[in-house]
Amino acid sequence: MRRWMEDLEARHGLDNLTDRSRQLVLGSFGLLMVLLIWSGLSMQAGDNPLTPILVRILPLVLFLPSILGRRPRGHAWLAFVSLLYFTQGVMVATLPGQGLLGGLEAISALGLFTGCMFYARFRSRQMRGDSHP
Fold it and tell me: Cα 109–40–58 angle (5° rounding)?
């Protein structure tokens, strides 16, 4: 795996890979937020209809400073949190009539995980100023 990553970095360049992985993070983060808000609107939670939305998106919102600040460590932590959303998406996909929504949530969470892990690697190497160990 290490050799494959080093070959990838040599072929495409560290700056290009960092930019592409950031685009994946931003796109999948935005899509996941939209899906969570959409599914939260369909839930009933007593007096306050915003509670399901806030509970679902708050963990992601807490990572906005790391995303906007382009911090590799924050992206690595966000990758782990995105696995919870992947699990939730798979569980929602098994509910009757929720297959599309759950599938999209799982796919966007998987995209977020992948983008964050690649970004954390490429950006940290970029900040160190090297392309090979």
Answer: 60
Could you tell me where the DSSP H helices lie in the chain?
2-12, 14-41, 51-61, 64-68, 72-93, 99-128
Name the one residue in this structure whose structure tokens are 């160190």. Answer: 128
Taking CB atoms within 8 Å and a gap of at least 24, the contacts of 130-133 are: 131/9, 131/10, 131/14, 132/6, 132/9, 132/10, 133/6
**How does pLDDT run across 49-107, given as a tens digit for each residue?**
788 888 899 999 999 999 999 999 999 999 999 999 999 999 999 999 889 999 999 99
pTM for this predicted structure = 0.89
What's CA 103's distance to the chain center, in Å?
A: 15
Q: How far apart are the first and last CA of the chain?
A: 14
φ, ψ dihedrals at 126, nearest 5° = -65, -40
**Whats the size of the chain, residue-wise?**
133
Which has more confidence, 131 or 106? 106
Q: Among candidates 88, 125, 123, 118, which has minimal Cα distance to 105? A: 88
